[in-house]
Structures are given as structure tokens and as C-alpha cells.
Fold:
Amino acid sequence: MKLLLVALKQTHRPGAPFRCCSTLRSSGSPSPSQDEVIVGSSPELVRALGSQVEVRPGFITEEEEAALLQELEPGLKKKRYEFDHWDDAIHGYRETERVRWGPVCEGILNRVRSLAFPQGSPLLGPVHVLDLDKAGYIKPHIDSVKFCGSTIAGLSLLSDSIMRLVKDNSPKEWLDLLLTRRSLYILRDQARYNFSHEILKDEESVFNGQRVPRQRRISVICRNLPD
Structure:
């Protein structure tokens, strides 16, 4: 299966962020709130994208994460990590699509769908599963508008990571999202069409000035169909 991406060649290193969050918490602390996991180049940008970018820390429980992994790991272990993506957008990954799920996992995905997508919105049938090696990363890209609709929603398993959004025609405008383990992120509309998104390399994984070590990461991604 080929992930449908449009890779962007530009690179970006943000300057000092607008800090809308407190310091990072230890792994044993309660999940941070929505306001603690997004920083941006300006308060105006954070406010402008407020309804189009969401991070929901602790969206699933440890038991629900274990249920998802139990279904996914047997198939993923049969695949090798690849370091040459067809359009050079991803390095150190393996991926699959899944249509059928057990009752617990189907319930989790129904919660994602009901929160992320408008009622009655036609959804892309298979759920995309992307497994990034610890040394893997995703370059800046915008998902193809030909095959994917206005909304992307993804669960983050196994590791914290940093997702960076950069405005396509104005690289000084950016957001960093702290995707904690077991969180849900949602990108809609302008954030989906006008901003690239990427998952930072482990050695670049810094949020609001603090190091966020990145391990192997599995994302479970739902998308809707184009209008």
C-alpha cells in the first residue's frame, strides 16, 4: 500500500515559540491538557487554528492501547522497515491498512470517528497504520487532496513525538504539537490543506525548549473522503 502524500522540499527551523503551555510533565504525571500541548509562532496563529488543530492527551487507556497493539503487531512483524519511500516523504517505516477490527478496537475507532468527523461524512474505508522505527521520521508533506478529505485524525501509540505544522506559503508561521503516547490528534480544513505536517526525528524532537525522546511509534489514522 502506498501512502498518498505530496512531499514538500522546503525545510524549516522555527524561532522562539509563542508559549501557550506549561513545562512538560514526567511520564507518571496526569495527561496534559489541550492548552499544554500546542505552541506556535504567534498567539494569533494559535487562535486562528484553534478549531482546526486538536490534541487530546490520554484519549485511550493503557488497556485500549494494548488491545490495538495485540491486533496490529502480528501483521506488522511480518514486514520490514523501509528507508526509501516512493516519494521520499517517510524514512524508517512500515505500514498497512486494516478494515476489520475486534469489538474493543472497533469501539475505540468509533469514538475517534464520532469526535473527529461531521455526522454523515463519508470516510475512507481502510484505517491506515503507520509504524515508525525509532530512527524513522516523516518529512514535511500535505496529504493528497485527490484521495483524502478535509480531516485527518490519528492515535499515537508506544511513544511521545512532535508534529510540526508549517504554512505552505509562509514558513515563518508554524505550530508544534506534543503528541503524547495514547493521545489523539485532529487536523481540519486550513490546517489540513494549507500547512505541511511532519514527525520530527528523535535527535530533533524538542518541544517548547525541552527534549522529548522518541521511540518506535505507531499511528492509527482515519481520514474522510474528498467532497
Summary: The longest strand covers residues 127-143. The first helix runs from residue 43 to 48. The CA atoms of residues 160 and 181 lie 5 Å apart.
